[in-house]
Amino acid sequence: MPPKALQATTVQGDPETYEDQNVHNVYDEIATHFSSTRYKPWPIIANFLSSLMTGWIGLDSGTGNGKYLPLPLDRPGDIWTIGLDRSRNLLEIARKAGRSDFTREVLVGNVLDNPWRPAVFDYAISIATIHHLATHERRRLAVKRLLECVAPDHGRVLIYVWAIEQDELSRRKVIEDNDPSPPIGKDVVVPWVLSKELSKSSTSSKQIAGPQVYNRYYHMFAKGELLRLVLEAAAELQLQVGSRPKAEDAVQNDTRGIEVVQDGWERSNYYVEVRLWQAS
Amino acid sequence: MVRLITHNLLACHAKDCNTNNFPLAFKDAQLEIREAEFNPEFLKGFLPKIEWTALVDTARQLGDTSLPLEQPEMLDDEFLKNLHHVLLEIHVEEGSMTCPNCGHVYPISNGIPNMLLAEHEIG
Ligand SMILES: [Zn+2]
């Protein structure tokens, strides 16, 4: 089947209901097939997880099939990443991610909630998740939750989202656009073609000819949009932006902030990494 | 999974439930013990983040009395092995967790807790 062009879309009605229908329900349906195509960790994320200190615990917000939960592979058990996702069917796969004789910690939850003791984690990652939220405000709230759930004096956060700028390795086509640099991203739906043998309904509805197609909603991020979202979230939390102040800077005690460590594009995705700091 | 490593981090997040919302109390917990690889360096690093009283109380409710009421100053192998067992080898497979403040119940099924709230319960 040839790759299909992305289709522009407009989010209508209540954004939460829209996400239920166009994101969560779809992932529950396609979980097994989807997971079989998502096994290769991206290098920036693998490096981030390798750089964490032994004894750290973290949150993978929107863990999907849990492919980042076993990392780093060369230091098993040195850190613990807890996976949260809306799709129960994906979590059933995630709890066995990496090794079937090993159980991961996963829970059903919403990336806009905060069911944790305050700032209890050392790190948080959110990979290919925030782009499924249907409004700018909801995406900003998701970033706020990440900044809130990690320790204010050393927490590290890495966020990955899908970019409008796609590379040739991706089989998807970018939407035709005359505006060379749109300031804000684009809402699209991406078809998922569920192969017949993995379709849950294939036994019950034999009359369906050919594979089933599910459309997933995405917000494709424009250049600079993810960083802007992070800076807006930081401002709402009264976090300064910049490097950790030095002792001679005489910054008021307990002043808090974030430092943007990385801000880039990799393989059709934008990513931002920040570190939290607190003056002492 | 709900092991005590995760349980010790969770708090109720229902609307306006901000105090005394931790630890969630297990109810009708069905346990499974599964061996996990012992990693003392992880435990030493994680120890300062544990809410100790909550961990000891919850372990006792689940029938494990191996942890002392106060965190010891000397981290010997026996203590670390007990801590390892409590945090990483006791799996709550079925049951629920109840908020001590508002009484909200978070169900656990097939080892996976559900922390979602209905729309009107979100703060
Ligand atoms: Zn509560």
CATH class call of chain B: Mainly Beta
Helix content of chain B: 25-40%
Question: Which stretches of chain B are low in confidence, meaning pLDDT under 50 for 5 or more residues running?
Answer: none
What is the element string of chain B, with H for helices and E for strands? HEHHHEEE
Distance between the termini of chain A: 59 Å
Within the largest sheet of chain A, what's the order of strands? 4-3-2-5-6-11-10-9
The overall pLDDT average of chain A reads: 86
**Main sheet: strand order of chain B:** 1-2-3-4
Order of helices and strands of chain A: EHHEEHEEHEEEHEEE
Number of strands of chain A: 11
GO biological process, one term (chain B): tRNA methylation
Subunit structure (chain B): Interacts with TRM9.
Protein name (chain B): Trm112p-domain-containing protein
Organism (chain B): Pholiota conissans
Task: Offer a few descriptive terms.
heterodimer; A: 280 residues; alpha/beta; eight-stranded mixed beta sheet; 5 helices; 22% helix; B: 123 residues; alpha+beta; N-terminal domain of TfIIb; four-stranded antiparallel beta sheet; 27% helix; binds zinc ion
Short summary of the structure?
Chain A is of the alpha/beta class.
Write the layout of secondary structure elements.
The complex is a heterodimer of chains A (280) and B (123).
Chain A: E1 7-8, H1 15-36, H2 43-50, E2 57-61, E3 80-85, H3 88-94, E4 106-108, E5 123-127, H4 136-149, E6 156-162, E7 186-194, E8 212-220, H5 225-236, E9 240-241, E10 256-266, E11 269-278
Parallel strand pairs in A: 2-3, 2-5, 3-4, 5-6, 9-10
Antiparallel strand pairs in A: 1-7, 6-11, 7-8, 10-11
Helix pairs in contact in A: 1-3, 4-5
Chain B: H1 4-7, E1 25-33, H2 40-46, H3 52-61, H4 77-88, E2 90-98, E3 105-109, E4 112-113
Antiparallel strand pairs in B: 1-2, 2-3, 3-4
